[in-house]
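Thread title: Can someone regenerate the structure for this chain?

I was given the following input by a collaborator and told the matching structure tokens would be attached. They weren't. Posting the sequence so someone can regenerate them.
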Amino acid sequence: MLRSLNTWFLVGQRLGIALVTLVIVSFAVFFATEMLPGDVAEILLGQAATPEAVAGLREAMGLNEPAISRFISWLTGLTQGDMGRSYVNDIDVAELLGNRLANSLRLAAVVTVICVPFALACGISAAMWRGSFWDRAVSIATISVISVPEFMVATLAVLIFAVWLGWLPALSYGADASNFAALLKAYAMPVITLTCVVSAQMIRMTRAAVIETINTPYVEMALLKGASRRRMVLRHALPNALGPIANAVALSLSYLVGGVIIVETVFNYPGVAKLMVDAVATRDLPLIQSCAMVFCVSYLSLITLADVIATLSNPRLRK
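Best answer:
Regenerated them for you:
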């Protein structure tokens, strides 16, 4: 009973830390966007606007109020589901984010479905046959991909599959999606790029987590008692490596939060990241802040989920 209470206390502690972190991040996001160069009112009215018109627009938009007051009002609105209105489009930010968020989630889901089973299989098998030709090949391939920036991976994918081979369209947005085969082609380039980078990170971290568990005394004892290497890994090492593997998966998938910005920009994919880049160009502060918070919430959710799984699956963390 006491151990169970201690476990749930640790879970509650992780959730509390996540909430505090989210408040701090929201503070940083708001004031970082406030420091962007240029005056929003002048940008919206143009260079020919009179000082009186600029001053009137600033008053109407509430930009003359103290920054801390605007932050509190903005944060209160977020907790109530109100993301504000876009300065440029003059519509609700939630409406702008709706379709774009669905596109980003669809892309992330496809990448997750492909890369998680593939990465876990490669990472676990490499750890199972550590030192073999397969292990060395996997290690060389993953290090090579990790060492290359994601924009370079995207550029190479365009050169190989779009320019040289002509198999896939270079841009996802506007590609023909009239049938299932055409839809696969439209998604292929960003999915290939993200899968390569995310899988490489996940394979490395999964392999390290399983090897660390294999080196524990109780797993080595199972091997000495005659257990096969496959049984040793799948029955003894893998269940106890669930927490580190969950962390590896969460940390790797969290890359989708930030790395997708470059991929969506390169392939002109209509997601939240592309929307945020466009909002920065027009200095649409409510839209920038909301997009940034979507990324922050996604990242914190993945990391917190991994911490909770690690707490519930590792007996040493319950003491």
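Residues 190 and 263 are 6 Å apart (CA to CA).
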